[in-house]
Amino acid sequence: MNNTIKTALGVAIIMGIFLFGYAALQYVDSYSKSIQPSSFRSFSVTGEGKVVAIPDVAQFTLSVITQGGLNIEKLQRENVEKANGAIEFVKSKGVDPKDVKTITFQLEPRYQHFSCPERGGPCPPPEIVGYTIMQTVSVKIRDFTKIGEIFSGVVTKGANSVSQLSFTIDDPEEIQSEARTQAIQKAQEKAKSIAKAGDFRIGRLLSIQEGGYYPPPFYEYARGADLAPSLPQATKAPTIEPGSQEIKVNVTLVYEIE
Question: Which CATH architecture is the domain 55-169+218-241 placed in?
Answer without folding.
Answer: 2-Layer Sandwich (3.30)
